[in-house]
Structure formats: C-alpha cells, structure tokens
C-alpha cells in the first residue's frame, strides 16, 4: 500500500510542478509576452505548424470565410517549442493548431471546423448574415 501512495504522490507532484512551471515561469518570459501580444493584437490568430494537416484544415476555414488570420508557424521559429509550452499553460493544450478569435481561445482544428459549420465562427468574426433579410 505504501508503494502505491508513493507512486500516486509522485504523479500528483509531477502534475503540480508542470502546472506551476507553465503558469508562473512562463508568465513573465519574453515568449509569453510575445504570445499574449500576438493574441491581443490580431482578430484571428492561428498557432500552427506548416506541415500539419490539422493546421491546414483550420487555416482553410478562414480562407472559406475570406478572412486572413495572423499565422504563427511554430516549426519555422527557434522558440516554437517554448511558444507551445506557453500555450499549454494558457489553454491546457500543447497541440497545434490553437486558434484565437478576438483575444479568446476557440480551440483546435475540430473546434474551428465545428464553429464554422454551426455558424458560430462567422458570428464571432462579425460576418454572419442576418436571417431576416
């Protein structure tokens, strides 16, 4: 029984320390400042990797809507891994794409496609057509 508690305790400590590092250490770094400024400075932000099929799918949604997102291609930056760490601390995901609309996290590829298909994305972007016209 003591062995089990020890393993569980180590696992919980690991999760806690990872969370602590993600939220406090990265909160004041230049990379964190870059991520926050990028999100707040653009209506549409996609953190992406140029070769990722899910990223391509998310970016294609904006092309369908005739919208040009600000895209940060993490695989083309020396600090791409650090940016992913910051995103993990912010939204709990390290995967790409991560999409932000008007400063708010929308989600990944599936979330973006779902929001597009439901009309939610057009509304968030202020390009929804009035139904009563």
UniProtKB/TrEMBL annotation:
A GO molecular function held by the record: glutathione disulfide oxidoreductase activity
Record keywords: Disulfide bond, Electron transport, Redox-active center, Signal, Transport
Signal peptide feature range: 1-27
Ranges where the Glutaredoxin domain occurs: 44-105
GO cellular component terms, A-Z: cytoplasm
Listed GO biological process terms: cellular response to oxidative stress
The UniProt record lists the keyword Transport: yes
Domain of life of the organism encoding this protein: Eukaryota
PANTHER family membership: GLUTAREDOXIN 2
Family: Belongs to the glutaredoxin family. CPYC subfamily.
Name this polypeptide is given: Glutaredoxin domain-containing protein
Naturally occurring in which organism (per UniProt): Protea cynaroides
């Amino acid at each position: 029984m003591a062995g089990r508690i020890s393993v569980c305790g180590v696992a919980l400590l690991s999760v806690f320390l990872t969370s602590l590092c993600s939220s406090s250490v990265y909160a004041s770094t230049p990379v964190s400042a870059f991520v926050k400024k990028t999100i707040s400075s653009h209506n549409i932000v996609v953190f992406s990797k140029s070769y990722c099929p899910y990223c391509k799918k998310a970016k294609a949604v904006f092309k369908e809507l005739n919208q040009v997102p600000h895209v940060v291609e993490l695989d083309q930056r020396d600090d791409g891994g650090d940016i992913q760490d910051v995103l993990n601390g912010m939204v709990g995901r390290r995967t790409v794409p991560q999409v932000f609309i008007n400063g708010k996290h929308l989600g990944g590829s599936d979330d973006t496609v779902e929001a597009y298909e439901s009309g939610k994305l057009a509304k968030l972007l202020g390009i929804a057509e009035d139904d009563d016209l």
